[in-house]
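Do me a favour: review this protein, sequence plus structure tokens, and tell me how the chain folds. Record follows.
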Amino acid sequence: MRPLELFRRLAPKSIAGRLALGSAFLVIAALIVTSISTGIVLSRFIRDQIDQRLDTQIGAVTSALTNAPSLPDRLTLNDPPPFDRPAGGWYWMATVDGHTYRSASLDGGDITNRGSDHWWGGWHDGPPDANARPRPFNGVGPRGEPLYLRIQVVPMNGTWITITSSAPAHALVRPLRDALAPVILAMLALGVLLAFASVLQLRLGLRPLKRVTKGLEDVRAGRASHIDGNQPRELSGLVEELNSLIKQNAEGIKRARGHVSNLGHALNTPLAALSLSLAASRNSRDGERLKLVAEMQERIRHHLGRARGAALNGPAHISTAIRPRILDLNVVLSKINAERGLNVSIDVPEELAVACEPQDLDEMLGNMLDNAFKWAASAISISGRNDGTQISIEVADDGPGISAEKIQDVLQAGKKLDESVVGHGFGLSITRELAELYGGDLDLGNASLGGLKAVIRLPGSVAPGGTKP
């Protein structure tokens, strides 16, 4: 697998996650680079300070070496420079013509150079340069302690003197460690602050996207007709396009509903006139024609309902409360069936609402309740609940019910299981098709009361004055 493909698979799917990952990587990389560069700068600073001290010591030793009065060809050490604390690692040593001069701190021992033995003879790749600066080496002291050396070969009385000045190796490490400890703590504190700043920046930077999402939810739920245009410059074009799309969709729905309404009136008006004419006729065959006209009216009503739902193209930015529609339908149907004394229980919360047109909800609920009132023996139960993004409405009765193998027959348009019952068999089929056009469904089954249980699921919305389910 290529590294780029692996990164794409492992990378977070959200924008916030990718920005956080990128920010964390850059912050960590910046802290590491800063810490390393700070360590290098401090190391060089400490080394320069020690070099200056050791070079000053070499200069002092050079100045202290003079010709002996009794032996002109020999050197003597007048007023030897410091470095007199034994075993401290701060030593100096001068070698010339087999004679060695030592600091008091060496206590008779020697400094061993582990860098280049050629320096101890006075030449290195040819005669030494009298103007050359001291050079650094690593070495050990008389007790085996690691040392940092500065060595210079200087001319005197026709010969060359090798002068070595040393510092303990820990003199380079300890100050660097002591200096880096607070620096690292400061870097960690800076990393925490940068992480907090990154999180804050992400929250503030992505807040407009959340507002746009909330605006779309409000439009879909019917709480708003458009998205607020007060957005950052980067999102203003997107918001304008979304608002244009919402407006265009609303106008298309309005035109489609107008065409559907006009078509309904254009067809139903002559059919109604024909129905009245046939009803007034005394011809026995006109009674059969009247039934055909009534069936045509039902079919028109059925297909116009489908066209109206298709024009909506799923849940629109509308909100219809469920309980008031059920209460109104119950009043009407209870009066029609008053002589039967049916007991109707309603358990639908006030805040439940669906994203459906009121007339479509009335038609779906009306068909379900009408079927329950037709078949119920004594009791009907109506309940509603929130199932997350959908609302479930259940209508159950204690009638004879329907066997499982005949449920699909009931949902077919124009299919009736009992021809003696008034109706044309379109109610539940229209209800199911309207529910499916809104992105829901209709299920039939056996109720706990003993009869049929019809459950319709529709997309949830917000009831006026309520909260989103």
Q: What stands out?
A: Residues 217 and 223 are 8 Å apart (CA to CA). DSSP finds nine helices and 15 strands in the chain. The longest helix spans residues 170-221. Residues 66-170 form a domain with the Beta-Lactamase fold (CATH 3.30.450).
